[in-house]
Amino acid sequence: MFTSVNHEDKRGGTLQTENADNEEQYPQDSARRNAGIYLVVTAFCVIFYLIYNQFSHGVHSPYMTFLFVWPFCLGAVPSFLVWKIPTLPRQGRISANLYHSGVAAVTVSSLLRGIFDIAGTASDYQVWLMAAGAGLLIGGVAAWILGK
Predict the structure, then answer these.
(1) Which residue from 68, 67, 66, 90 is spatially nearest to 78, judged by alpha carbons?
(2) What is the CA radius of gyration of the chain?
(3) Global pTM value
(4) DSSP symbol at 2
(5) Is the dihedral of CA 5, 32, 74, 101 positive or negative?
(6) Cβ–Cβ < 8 Å for 81, 38
(7) Per-residue pLDDT tens for 87-99?
(8) Residue 68, number of CB atoms within 10 A of its CB
(9) What dihedral do alpha carbons 127, 131, 136, 138 form, nearest 10°?
(10) Residues with Cβ < 8 Å from 55, sequence gap 6 or more?
């Protein structure tokens, strides 16, 4: 079913917009878009690892080698499942923001840990970033379960 809404613009005229069907379609489009974005980020992580590995002088780090796993397993796979399984509840704005921020924080933390391992150094900030990312992920899942 289709509903149109009239809005007044600044010149006193009216604009017609359609919103009833778009509200139901948007979450599925959002999940599809998120899955695509996470696949691009996963590919970037693989390419970054391959290039960085060429200049690492034979030193390897599992955090850098498996950098692609974070955005793929925590981002692309769940987004694909939400996109393809219509019975799964959709994420609200709060849960999506928390969850996606958590995936980004965990991915960047893994990248930093890999760089630090290869360079032979360490940082406490990377550990805090990983903990913050895990907290954001847990908060995002909790908000999703609560329907926020």
Answers:
(1) 90
(2) 20
(3) 0.79
(4) -
(5) negative
(6) no
(7) 888 888 999 999 9
(8) 21
(9) 150
(10) none
